[in-house]
Amino acid sequence: MSRRDQIRMTDEEVAAFLEGGKTLQVATIGPEGAPNLVAMWYAVADGKCAFWTYGKSQKVVDLRRDDRITCLVEDGDRYSELRGVELRGRGEIVEDRAAIDRIGEAVAAKYTGPVDDNVRAGLAVVGAKRVGIVVHPDRVISWDHHKLGGAY
User: What is the DSSP string of 36-49?
Assistant: First the structure.
């Protein structure tokens, strides 16, 4: 078995890792063809990574021109602890108000706790100028160095 195969996560491990991940690194293709890389809070909704952002942000402008996207969630401080999931695929811009609100609520719940009516009202105000982005991966690349048992 190759080293690459040894550290690859199963589908279940990928799903659990993404659910528990902290920050989604999001890369789109900028106007000059160079990557535009930003860090976003995100949630997993219906099995897909999703986040919300201002509709006029550079990443949305980029996705309207070219919907290719690459996202990364990673963690670990030492080589033997490194884990990550890279998603390569298409970024879907969501402009349906109810769907945007659901994404915003999922992100808020993940990072700040339960969403009640007061939080929901605040999110509606903040979300008025936002769109949702749902990541549809064509390829998932994963690694978990814990699986090496400390061996290199």
Answer: EEEEE--EEETTEE
**Measured distance CA(102)–CA(95) in Å, rounded:** 12
Sign of the alpha-carbon torsion through 72, 76, 78, 80: negative
First-to-last C-alpha distance (Å) of the chain: 14
Domain tally, the chain: 1
**Given a cut of 70, is residue 152 above it in pLDDT?**
no
Question: CA-CA distances (angstroms) from residue 125 to 48, 49, 53, 71, 120?
Answer: 25, 23, 13, 27, 9
Query: Token pair of 48, please?
Result: 């897909």
Domain ranges, residue 10: 3-148
Q: Can you tell me the distance from the alpha carbon of 149 to that of 97, in angstroms, rounded to the nearest whole number?
A: 47
* Tens-digit pLDDT profile for residues 24-43: 999 999 999 999 999 999 99
Cα 73 to Cα 4, 23, 152: the distances in Å are 18, 6, 23
